[in-house]
Amino acid sequence: MFFALSWLIPIFQLKSSLPAHPRKSSSSVIMASVSEVPQTVEWQGKQVPVWSMRTIDYGLVLSQDPDEVEKVTKACLEDGYFQLDLNGIDGRGMLEDRQEVLKLMHRFFEAPLEAKNEYGLIDSHLGYEPVGNRTGAFGAGTKDGYEMLKVSRDEIQQGSPRVPSPIKNSGDLHILERAIGSCNTVTKVILSALSTGMGLAGAERFEKSHRNDRPSTTTLSMMHYLPAEVTGQSKIGHQKHTDISSLTLLFSDQWGLQIRPPGECGAREMGFVEPKPGCAFVHVGDSLRFASGMKFQSCIHRVVPFDPAEHRYSIAYFLRAEDDTMFMDSEGRYVTAKEWHDQKFKAFTDPPVWQAMAPKSMILGGMKEDGADDREPVAPFVPEVSKETAVQA
Ligand SMILES: [Fe+2]
């Protein structure tokens, strides 16, 4: 039986007004090697790492350049993430589509709640989610600080998307169709390169379980993080997790995304991803890790308020495997891509008590985070964040 990958979490992160770049430590050191000694940035009164990472040239991957194929494969094997440079002629269309989606997001999220919530959350990969539907960045007792609209790739392809009325005009639907098409192409190109890099052939190739004409929960997710000054201390960011998906394509012009790189004894400390102009942050999700026989790393990440006063916009394309794709998870269970999606989505939205009872392999996809280089427990952040973001809701 073929073990498939199922999902990725692509995210395009955009912003309405560029935030001031954080201050980097004067003692920061940029290392030539990947993920060795990071730069640091001041956040919450501490110096926090800004993790270095490989940069992959999209044009070279599109050409199946052998060196670039090896490089992107190594990035997924060793890190679980990389920056994808889209500045060349082959990627600029994607960047332009992203900008149009950002404008659309502003139009949508500024609409009244009743209009945005016209259909509610139709399915876990489709519809509108208001602020506070999931667990927040700082653990049990906190809720997320973002609202989100998810548009199904399947529905766009079928020409009958259930999209709320504020962006249901033909112009907006065209923007969504273009963006989803671009995202799909980019992620499929990466997937194909990874199949080649892993020496897979025929039905074993990853893209064979991501066919366009087969049902999947692949979705374009548009997220608006409200200022912590507005949501209050109990609704902040997005909890630490790995993505359900196979690959996540994320555009981020604003600070706030943090990752824990894999380490020799467990995950390394939480640090920021620096937004790079013209680049997308791409990371491996649980399903591709499972499909690779646990060889690929799934990226542990969360979203925190870097600037509690700013609105933060992000776009993620989650490339997911066909619903009936079968794979073995980190617990040794055989599950389909759809089952893994539904189970993990439930865990994301469960109350803290239930979530605490779930195996750690559900939220973190079986990735280990304890170890000798685990120098930064999350708990001490809570009182500091609470203090710095406490405002009237
Ligand atoms: Fe995520």
Task: Please give a structural write-up.
The N and C termini lie far apart (about 50 Å). This protein has a single domain (about 55-375), classed as B-lactam Antibiotic, Isopenicillin N Synthase, Chain (Jelly Rolls, Sandwich). The chain contains twelve helices and 18 strands. Helix 2 (about 65-80) packs across helix 6 and helix 3 packs across helix 6. Helix content is about 30%, strand content about 20%. Residues about 1-35 and about 370-393 have low confidence and may be disordered. The chain is globular. With about 400 residues, the chain is of the alpha+beta class. The strands form four sheets. Strands 1, 4, 5, 6, 7, 8, 9, 11, 14 and 16 form a ten-stranded mixed sheet that branches. Bound molecules: fe (ii) ion. Fe (ii) ion binds near residues 9, 241, 243 and 301. Pfam families: 2OG-FeII_Oxy, DIOX_N. Belongs to the iron/ascorbate-dependent oxidoreductase family. One of its GO terms (molecular function) is metal ion binding. Keywords: Iron, Metal-binding, Oxidoreductase, Signal. This is Clavaminate synthase-like protein.
Task: Note the main attributes of this structure.
ten-stranded mixed beta sheet, 18 strands, alpha+beta, disordered C terminus, 393 residues, 30% helix, binds fe (ii) ion, 12 helices, Jelly Rolls
Brief rundown of the structure:
The protein is α+β, with helices and mostly antiparallel strands. The chain has helices at residues 58-62, 66-78, 92-109, 113-116, 153-158, 170-197, 228-231, 286-291, 337-349, 352-357, 360-363, 381-389, and strands at residues 11-14, 39-43, 46-50, 55-57, 81-85, 121-123, 126-129, 146-152, 219-225, 238-241, 247-251, 257-260, 271-272, 279-284, 300-303, 312-319, 326-328, 334-336.
